[in-house]
Amino acid sequence: MKKVILAIIVIAVIAIAGYFIINSSSEKVVLTNDQINATSTNVVATSTVTNKEKTVLGQSVEGREIAAYHFGTGEKELLFVGGIHGGYGANTVAVANELVAYIKANPNYIPVDLKVTVIPVLNPDGLADSVRFNANDVDLNRNFDCDWQASGVWQSKKVSGGTSAFSEPEALALKNYVEINQPEAVVAWYSASGGVYSSNCHNGVLADTTALNKAYSKASGYTSTEDFDFYEITGDLTNWLAKINIPAISVLLTNHTDTEWTKNKAGIDAILKYYSK
């Protein structure tokens, strides 16, 4: 009888202990909505790493992603941008994609002290629709903050610069990336005239911009020019970069079809050499 009573007591003790353990564990995992949101935010933040090969900077007007590809682990970042004018400059998308493919095939191409980021197409809607403008009919190279105007000029035609500087999601995505990451220098591809042009927003051409221009033009064989003076430019991407003191050049391919990869590869090589010091 004593054994039976003892067994009952033991079972009761175990049951009571189990109850408190279970409830104690439950209390530890119950989170408030604020805690859940904070935890989710932390997970997103820690999963965004600098060495991740592809990141999405934002979406176009029609919801297409604006992707950036990152290579190398150095502290100094060089940024290359194509497809600002969509389908009108489709070969600039192609040359940017050639650079991505080349780096993937040659992982030791980038010097150890550098990082290279490539945005192949800033205007994916224009590329999809085979036009120069984005889906709001805005010329993205008139939507940046250097001499911005609502009505700009392209050759002899009037074009929209948007409702304000950075009114377009594509331009804003690039702005946010640049301001957060502060690249050492930027190369933007356009077409077509076969030249390299320095950036300037009424503050003089930066010394590194001049060096960047000379290095790229000498290696590639493109003509080196300080100012783009064919017609008045407002809201230009590279001139905005000059305004915030980031060296930048515009590389205009010779036509609207060829990537001229050999020429541009030589120019890229020269820039990597210049900044890897």
Descriptive account of the structure:
With 277 residues, the chain is of the alpha/beta class. The chain folds into two domains: 2-42; 51-275, Zn peptidases (Aminopeptidase). The protein is built from eight helices and ten strands. It has helices at 2-29, 33-47, 90-105, 124-128, 169-181, 207-220, 237-243, 261-275; strands at 54-59, 65-71, 76-81, 114-119, 151-154, 157-160, 185-191, 195-198, 223-225, 248-253. The longest helix has 28 residues, at 2-29. Mean pLDDT is 85; it is low at 1-51.
Summary keywords:
277 residues; 2 domains; two-stranded antiparallel sheet; disordered N terminus; eight-stranded mixed beta sheet; 19% strand; globular; Aminopeptidase; alpha/beta
Number of alpha- plus pi-helical segments:
8
How many strands appear in the DSSP assignment? 10
Order of helices and strands: HHEEEHEHEEHEEHEHEH
| CATH class annotation of the largest domain | Alpha Beta
Question: Mean of the pLDDT scores?
Answer: 85
Largest sheet geometry: 8 strands, mixed
Helix content: 40-55%
Contiguous uncertain segments of 5+ residues: 1-51
Topology:
Layout: H1 2-29, H2 33-47, E1 54-59, E2 65-71, E3 76-81, H3 90-105, E4 114-119, H4 124-128, E5 151-154, E6 157-160, H5 169-181, E7 185-191, E8 195-198, H6 207-220, E9 223-225, H7 237-243, E10 248-253, H8 261-275
Parallel strand pairs: 3-4, 3-7, 7-10, 8-9
Antiparallel strand pairs: 1-2, 2-4, 5-6, 8-10
Helix pairs in contact: 6-8
